[in-house]
Amino acid sequence: MAVRGTKDLFGKELRLHQHIVATARRVLEAAGALELITPVFEETQVFEKGVGISTDIVRKEMFTFQDRGGRSLTLRPEGTAAMVRAYLEHGMKVWPQPVRLWMAGPMFRAERPQKGRYRQFHQVNYEALGSESPILDAEAVVLLYESLKELGLRRLTVKLSSVGDPKDRARYNAYLREVLSPHREALSQDSQERLELNPMRILDSKSEQDQALLKELNIRPMLDFLGEEAKAHLKAVERHLERLSVPYELDPTLVRGLDYYVRTAFEVHHAEIGAQSALGGGGRYDGLSELLGGPRVPGVGFAFGVERVALALEAEGFGLPEEKGPDVYLIPLTEEAVAETFYLAEALRPRIRAEYALSPKKPGKGVEEALKRKAAFVGFLGEDELKTGEVTLKRLATGEQVRLPQTEALGFLLSALA
């Protein structure tokens, strides 16, 4: 059995995952993004410093272990910190800026498995590093929205907000401590800890008692505490999205669950997949590179969950085209022909998708098996064909049949399948 919270991917589910990633690749590379693949584990401090020690991810959800040298390593729970680490390590700051990067791969979180949430899951990440321009924030929103729209999803909602600059958040955290401290015992245990570490994380709590208290106290939103620079930045992002006719709603309750965000924060939701309706999200993180020990590099990006997007596609009734079978399925009619079918298959590959049976079969049984495999042609090698160096090919859709030299089979099939 696969470990709880993980799953094997194959067949239709794997093809859907591949289709989602391939669609994102097309959209993101059209915008100039360069593919990056980082290791699946990093030094633990990359996430402790980058994601933030007050986040649930770092406090409770990381798979951390020690290597034989005693170094603490962690399976990556998210992609941004690792991608910024790679940007710094490989001197990308001297490249023409901004540098746009994208990555697809598995992430790991030790959380309770449920629909749309796994301990090993897959994300597509996009990061644009090297510029503070609000145009890049708008571009990130557009690229996330377009990646999902290009898949055929229609019931999408873009939510936009701002978490302000560090000084704005300091004022807001002070306000939250002042308002919530008298009600500390009414908070969940996790949020009592957050009250000391980072009160803004309480707004993102999944606890019903926390959310009930926040509603009862009528907590003011972060947007009320934005300084003039953060306000102007958010207005510019809104203006660009409106100019591009990207539908969005300003959501003052939106708080991203990672400590590195500043200013712009956004998510894209889908109406049909219940509690896990956020397909993806992101925002700006101008101070992340300094947390990782590098120079200041402004950046903005997003990630979306492949499994979540697959759920949304299923909810909208999306179906991939039927998987194609082999171009030709070769059948040996005699024991002597078994090896020859293998040799012929190899002669046809890789330009032709050729498969073959490993034991002799009668023609009728061979056709049955070829049909089950959804082959376009079935090929027969029997005693006569071995004597003459030929092969008999039959198009399964029409029943048309031809016998020709094996050396001509490749050209015939390429022409017939064109």
Characterise this structure.
The chain has helices spanning 11-30, 44-50, 56-61, 80-89, 134-150, 166-180, 189-197, 208-217, 228-243, 288-291, 306-315, 338-348, 363-372, 383-388, 409-417, and strands spanning 34-35, 41-43, 64-66, 72-75, 99-108, 120-129, 156-162, 249-250, 262-270, 278-284, 299-305, 328-332, 354-356, 377-381, 390-395, 401-405. It is of the alpha+beta class and 418 residues long. The protein folds into two domains: 11-165 and 227-315, Bira Bifunctional Protein, Domain 2 (BirA Bifunctional Protein, domain 2), CATH 3.30.930.10; 328-417, Rossmann fold (3-Layer(aba) Sandwich), CATH 3.40.50. Strands 1-5-6-11-10-9-7-8 form an eight-stranded mixed sheet, sandwiched between helices. A five-stranded mixed sheet has the order 13-12-14-15-16, sandwiched between helices. A hairpin with a 5-residue loop joins β15 (390-395) and β16. α1 (11-30) packs across α11 and α5 (134-150) crosses α9 (228-243). The chain starts with 10 loop residues before the first helix and ends with a helix. The model has no long low-confidence stretch (mean pLDDT 94).
Write the layout of secondary structure elements.
Elements: H1 11-30, E1 34-35, E2 41-43, H2 44-50, H3 56-61, E3 64-66, E4 72-75, H4 80-89, E5 99-108, E6 120-129, H5 134-150, E7 156-162, H6 166-180, H7 189-197, H8 208-217, H9 228-243, E8 249-250, E9 262-270, E10 278-284, H10 288-291, E11 299-305, H11 306-315, E12 328-332, H12 338-348, E13 354-356, H13 363-372, E14 377-381, H14 383-388, E15 390-395, E16 401-405, H15 409-417
Parallel strand pairs: 1-5, 7-8, 12-13, 12-14
Antiparallel strand pairs: 2-4, 3-4, 5-6, 6-11, 7-9, 9-10, 10-11, 14-15, 15-16
